[in-house]
Design goal:
This protein is an alpha+beta fold. Helix content is 34%, strand content 18%. The protein has 4 helices and 6 strands; from the N terminus they run βββββαααβα. Helix 1 crosses helix 3. The longest helix is centred in the last third of the chain and has 17 residues. The protein is globular.
Length: 153
């Protein structure tokens, strides 16, 4: 049973000389929408590469279920594909210009802002407290059903 937990690392994390690289080190989460960034840091110190996940967490659990939330980013498949393409285009910048972790984070955040940030933030009542089972796939299905019904009528 995975109990809703998913891995945040999908890149090789272990490399022995003359062997295939494998992903054996991981961080799992059941709060995917709070995961901002995860990755593997290449190093020559160990066969196991350091891994990390940055997540947005709050210390307060007292959210009123009727409170509206503001969404600043849209992590759709198309936007994430654009993000990957932008990173791939500038791979040399990532590899050779990021001499500090802060430089890497700044460059990565700029790419996320350019590809996923909404021009105008959205406000919604839909959140994990009021609708924990609503996913983007379900929302798309509901909207498509409504469009098809409207066309049929």
């Amino acid at each position: 049973c995975n109990c809703g937990f998913v891995p945040t690392i999908s890149l090789p994390t272990h490399q022995m000389p003359h062997c295939e690289r494998t992903c054996i080190d991981n961080i799992h989460t059941n709060v995917v929408d709070k995961s901002l960034l995860s990755g593997v840091v290449s190093n020559k110190i160990s066969h196991h590469h350091p891994i990390f996940t940055a997540a947005k967490v709050s210390s307060s659990c007292s959210q009123n279920s009727s409170d509206k939330i503001t969404i600043h980013y849209e992590y759709s498949n198309a936007n994430l594909d654009n993000l990957c393409n932008e990173i791939e285009k500038d791979m040399n910048t990532f590899l050779y210009s990021c001499d500090t972790f802060e430089n890497f984070i700044e460059l990565f955040q700029n790419k996320i802002d350019a590809t996923c940030k909404l021009e105008t933030p959205k406000t919604t009542k839909r959140n994990t407290i009021t609708n924990p089972w609503i996913t983007s796939g379900l929302i798309n299905s509901v909207q498509k059903k409504a469009r098809l019904y409207f066309d049929w009528r």
